[in-house]
Amino acid sequence: MKTQEKKSTLRLKQYLFVLIALWTVIIGSALLWNMTDRHHELFETAYHVAQVAFYKDIMYRRWASMHGGVYVPVSGKTPPNPYLSHIGERDIATPSGRKLTLMNPAYMSRQVYEISRDEYGIYSHITSLRPIRPENAPDEWETKSLELFEKGEKEVSEIEKRDGKDYMRLMSPFFVEQDCLKCHSGQGYRLGEIRGGISVSVPLEPLKNIYGGHSFSLILRYLFFWLSGLSGIAFAWLNIRRQVRARNLAEKTLLEAERRFRAVLENIRLIGVMLDTKGNITFCNDFLLHLTDRTEAEVLHKNWFEIFLPPEIRETTKKTVFIESVESGEFPAHHENEIITRSGERRVISWNNTLLFDSDGKAAGMTGIGEDITERRRAEDSLQESEMRYRQLVELSPDAIVIDQDKKFVYINPAGVSIFGAGSPEELLGRRVLDFIHPDYQTAVKERIQQMYNGQQIVFMEQKIIGLDDRERDIEAAGVPITYRGNPGSQVVIRDITERKCAERELRLAKNSAEAANRAKSGFLANMSHEIRTPLNVVIGTSYLLLESDMTPEQHGQAEMICTSSEILLSLLNDILDFSKIEAGRLDIENIDFNLEKTVRSVIEILTAAAKGKGLGLILRMASDMPLQLRGDPNRLRQIIINLVNNAIKFTDEGEVRVSVSPENDSSTHIMLRFSVSDTGIGIPKAVMDRLFISFSQADASTTRKYGGTGLGLAISKKLAELMGGEIGADSEEGAGSTFWFTANFEKQVQAAGDMAQGEADLQPVTCDLHPDSLRLLLAEDNEMNRLLAKALLQKIGFTSVDVAVNGKEAVDALRKTPYHLVLMDIQMPEMDGLEAARMIRNPESGVLNPSVPIVAMTANVTKEDHDKCLKAGMNGFITKPIKPQELFETIKRQLK
Questions:
Q1: Are 863 and 828 in contact (CB under 8 A)?
Q2: Residue 656's beta-bridge partner residues?
Q3: How far is CA 612 from CA 605, 615, 655, 762, in A?
Q4: What pLDDT, on a 0 to 100 scale, did the predictor assign at position 768?
Q5: 855-859 vs 822-825, strand pairing mode
Q6: Which residues pair with 280 in a beta bridge?
């Protein structure tokens, strides 16, 4: 039946296509006929327009020739015609004196042609093969036409392109008439002969526009006829097709319904099954077979309940759910039950059932559509379990978890009830969140809540709340936007940080107290350092002066004891200050340019006297070809070397102390140097090697120890080496001497020629070409003993002209009167301290004679902060008390270069 219907439909389509093709050919042929006729009409119309223009020109010429030409005013466009000069009355004048000239027909025609061309686009031209005037020369088409006239042709017409446009060109011969002889008889003209022709060019564009509109209208009419015919054909075809389909519809309705039903059952991912009244399977789809891992032969015509239902519900379900329901005609439309696969797996199926009836209205069986909801049921169970675990976590959470909607509480866990000072959740549900926010945080919390309602997540934010129990609590809260029970809201986690805040406040107070104590300690140490250095300066300075004076050997020895003890006391004071800085984390490393060899040799020069005093040799060895111009902290480097060499001299009774410097790791920009101090002294026991670099620790800790010291020097040296990017260590054997070494990293300067170490060399004494007796110095010092000592030291090294001032004010006044070469300025002085005095001296409006005079601070304040303050105030140098004569001289020398 399906094949027969397809054949009928195919024949109907073939008839339809033939009718459409035939109708299209008829309409297309008629349209082509009319379009051809229109084109011919266009040509004929253009030809007649050209003829009209030609005959009009002939009439104008004949009229002008009848009267022998026309007189016109003489103008630039119509000057006298030189070809009519043989006519006596070519030029005349009116009684009023107006000048007229005779215009012959040809001349008149040419001007008329120009007007016609400019106004209407029609080109006319009088020409001949032998023109009298050059402008009358023919073009190519006109030449061919004139040649045809001499052969007897009466007229030539043709469509030709001119200036890119189509023109109808028409040309007829021009015969000599009687009236032409009035002007041209003297030129050999004969009556009736051909003397040229007149050509007319009519543009086709206007005519095409007219006929184009007509053609478009014609096309529309034929299109309408064609569409109308198609509509009739389509209507007739549809009517026939409808009748054919109506005839076939009744035949295939039942078959089509069955086919669709089976197709649906086969293709959907649902179980499709049909049972008879006894529960036997009359149909099942592939999905059921695939789901249960069975074949159609195993299932078809077998009892559904015996194959697929679990044993425990098999008989009950078959009897009460199925058979009784089918017999009563009231089968449940929906139900769920489990089925068993081949492997024994149980799958939960949700059924939609429909009873089938025969023609007598009796139940003939059942159709069931089942959905496998096993995974969904498992997911629901998992979700319920997850929700239960989540609820338990929320309920047991030590943090408050609240959900708000419309800025009101809709859920709060037990921890939240406690944080908000309530007895139960009911006391809080429905209340506004902002009612509990501390006034100081209202604005910020409103903004955060609005951001959450706009979809933003809020990270932890600290704030205060006031609970129902009127207690203020510090909290931190974070929230995310959520949908709760179908409506938008936010979930907020709140943590009570009241105790943490209290602990932080206590910690902050403790920290402030510790910092205050540390500042007090630092201030105390700085003040003690200043107070101790001030008298110590007098002691050490006086001992220097005594040692330079004439004394008995006994007195000289006593002065040396004073000087040595003072130096030890000063070293102890420096160690205590450095250790205090290390503990406070304020020990800084400078990064300045320095010369390595000069720095190391300066240490050797300082300690040579101590070594010689014990009869020891002090040797310096520096590796050759090693860069000397470096950047780093030369003072801290010098401090480490002094500590190590002093220790070596202290613990060595005979032999020598050797200082070595060598590169350990070299790059293009930096160099790691290794410094070693070796001695032939007493050595160190292995048992105490681990304590060497620990603060206040010594190899000999007994009360009867032979060698003194605080035990700070090596600990400070260790910290300084680490700050310079290196490390420190020692190798020793008891009774055989020790070697202390450390490394330090330095940046290279740009090397200059000859700027490399040259190996071991003899130490040379410091020389100077300065003439102190020609210089005048000003000493500002409030302490009388320090003032007397400083003046004596200056005079001892050659400065004979030294004035004194007891405070900064007197120093400024003195500089207003005397042009001093250099000023030595104490820092702590009454009325005006040294820093204020330096700033005033540097002020160009202070009235001093030389605002740029070198100023050297000479103070017992020895910290880096003190040094920086002096430089910031405008000072040029810095000498710490106690004053050493050589250091004082070198500093003054540098400033006066």
A1: no
A2: 617
A3: 11, 5, 11, 15
A4: 43
A5: parallel
A6: 303
pLDDT in tens, 792-827: 888 888 888 999 999 999 999 999 999 999 999 998
| The pair of three-digit structure tokens given for residue 385, joined into one six-digit string | 């379990």
- Encoding tokens for residue 857? 């601070």
Packing angle, helices 498-548 and 784-796, rounded to 10: 50
The span from the CA of 273 to the CA of 372, in Å, is: 14
Higher pLDDT, 789 or 268: 789
Query: How far, in Å, CA of 847 to CA of 882, rounded?
Result: 33
Helix (H) or strand (E) segment spanning residue 210: helix 205-267
Mean pLDDT (the chain, rounded): 79
State pTM to two decimals: 0.37
Interatomic CA distance for residues 277 and 356, integer angstroms: 10
Report which residue type is found at 181. L
Q: What three-state secondary structure class fits 846? A: coil
Q: Which residues pair with 857 in a beta bridge?
A: 825, 878
DSSP state for residue 163 in the 8-state scheme: T
Instruction: Decide if 291 contacts 372 (C-beta within 8 A).
Output: yes
Amino acid at 796: K
pLDDT for residue 615 is more than 80: yes
- Tell me the C-alpha distance between 50 and 453, whole Å: 86
Q: What are phi and psi of 509, to 5 degrees?
A: -65, -40
Give the H or E element holding residue 464. strand 458-466
3-state SS, residue 614: coil
User: Which distant-in-sequence residues (6+ apart) come within 8 Å of 188 by Cβ?
Assistant: none
Token pair in block for residue 228 = 């109308």
Residue 522 to residue 531: CA distance in whole angstroms: 14
Helices vs. strands in the chain: H and E counts, helices first: 23, 29
pLDDT digits (tens, 9 = 90+) for 277-330: 888 998 888 888 888 899 988 888 889 888 888 888 888 888 777 887 787 777
- Residue with token string 């060399």: 761
Beta strands in 686-838 (DSSP E): 728-732, 738-748, 776-780, 801-805, 822-825
pLDDT for 760: 44
C-alpha radius of gyration, the chain, whole number:
63
Q: Give the amino acid at 2.
A: K
- Where helices occur in 67-129 by DSSP H, the ranges are 105-120
Question: What is the per-residue DSSP string for 439-463?
Answer: GGGHHHHHHHHHHHHTT--EEEEEE
pLDDT at 463: 86
Out of 176-180, 661-665, 878-882, which region has the weakest mean confidence (pLDDT)?
Answer: 176-180
Q: Which of 160, 161, 162, 167 is nearest to 201 (CA)?
A: 167
pLDDT in tens, 93-131: 888 888 888 877 777 777 777 777 777 777 777 787 777
- The Cα–Cα gap between 141 and 160 comes to 9
Burial per residue of 180-207, b for 16 or more beta-carbon CB atoms within 10 angstroms, e otherwise:
beebbeeeeeeeeeebbbbbbbbbbeeb
